[in-house]
Amino acid sequence: MTDAAELRRLTKELLAAHPPATTDRLDFLKARFDAGLAWVHYPVGLGGLDAPRSLQVVVDAELEGAGAPDNDPRRIGIGLGMAAPTILRYGTDEQKQRFLRPLWVGEEVWCQLFSEPGAGSDLAALGTRAVREGDHWVVNGQKVWTSSAHLARWAILIARTDPDVPKHAGITYFLCDMTDPGVEVRPLRQITGEAEFNEVFLTDVRIPDSRRLGEVGDGWRVAQTTLNNERVAIGGMRLPREGGMIGPISKTWRERPELRTPDLHQRLLKLWVEAEVTRLTGERLRQQLVAGQPGPEGAGMKLAFARLNQEISGLEVELRGEEGLLYDDWTMRRPELVDFTGRDAGYRYLRSKGNSIEGGTSEVLLNIVAERVLGLPSEPRTDKDVAWKDLAR
Predict the structure, then answer these.
(1) Of 5, 123, 21, 7, whose CA–CA distance to 388 is shortest?
(2) What share of the chain in percent tops pLDDT 70?
């Protein structure tokens, strides 16, 4: 069993053999992965050492103290938080060897081809088709709200492979090369002025069966691993006190006493306490993750994240008065990152509107919490046993 002392020793060996000050950033990250210090709880040979997940902080602290580069996790968040755990759980040995290392070091960016114009909240109703032709699948359809599609080399994709069975049963999960012929990415300009999201059109895209993840028709079960990890990644990110959206408004409150009123004071205090409780709840959730796969509790964190962001950003605009109505830059651009704290109050207010949609709508997540966390009766579902091709659309 690898313990903290052993991990410190291995980390010091890595730093001695590849000094951060003189080693190329990508070379250092590859060496870290090969030493098993990327994500220590992963298997040996796949960036880990089969060590307890809780010991990752030991490695991270040693490397941070030595000034070692990180893998820019915000830029490759979909790969790290969604694709990697799904590939680890359901991928073949060849798939794990091929994809995990370039994913972790940031050589290959990933995106998620799940939602469709007619299948957002009801994701299982998706209509993108994948038809088998020999050793390949021919995929046709449209995906939407795809973050980082304009940057991505690979995508996690779910498509319908059998329309003659109920909607959850006829889905298969694939790994799609975004550079393949027939993949077209178009920007979607948002209310913020940016085109952070995209729509993706798939026209006769040929995906080898070797890039299928899991069994044919088992894609919905595979996708649950992705979705559970996505919710934790969005709602359970590690933050310091006053990290995230509560930080800018707290700073403004301290620096601009002329803006204060008793009513705003009470409302800000309430949201500050809620933000701190949510942050600590996220810490507890991450500790629970050490023991296994993320569960439906991540849905609750995602719900809290969305509601708090929208309430805090609304209060910030109100606090700033006329200044809150200003907007710094409406230039059409396709950013690599969402920068909530680096832009002005107007941007935070507008961008936070998407928090209750992305990563699962708040309405759907409320059902998940009710049914899977609280154990309440399921809502009636008349389409549960109906073949997808017979559903009203």
Answers:
(1) 123
(2) 96
- In one-letter notation, the amino acid at residue 198 is N
Q: Can you tell me the distance from the alpha carbon of 367 to that of 294, in angstroms, rounded to the nearest whole number?
A: 17
Q: Is 230 a catalytic residue?
A: yes
Q: What does the pLDDT look like over 70-110, one tens digit per residue?
A: 999 989 999 999 999 999 999 999 999 999 999 999 999 99
Contact 132, 139 (CB under 8 A): no
pLDDT by residue (tens digit) across 11-55? 999 999 999 999 999 999 999 999 999 999 999 999 999 999 889
Ramachandran bin of 177, using left for φ above 0, alpha for ψ from -120 to 50, beta for the remaining angles:
beta
3-state secondary structure of 47: coil
Rounded Cα gap, residues 172 and 161, in angstroms: 6
Q: Is the pTM of this model over 0.85?
A: yes
Q: Which of 196, 230, 297, 316 is catalytic?
A: 230
Q: What DSSP character marks residue 257?
A: G
Q: What are phi and psi of 353, to 5 degrees?
A: -60, -30
Residue 280 burial (10 A CB sphere; 0-12, 13-18, 19+): exposed
Give which of 180, 87, 185, 105 is closest to 145, Cα–Cα. Answer: 185
Provide the greatest CA pair distance for the chain: 71
How much is the pLDDT for 292?
A: 59
User: Tokens at residue 328, please?
Assistant: 């710094």
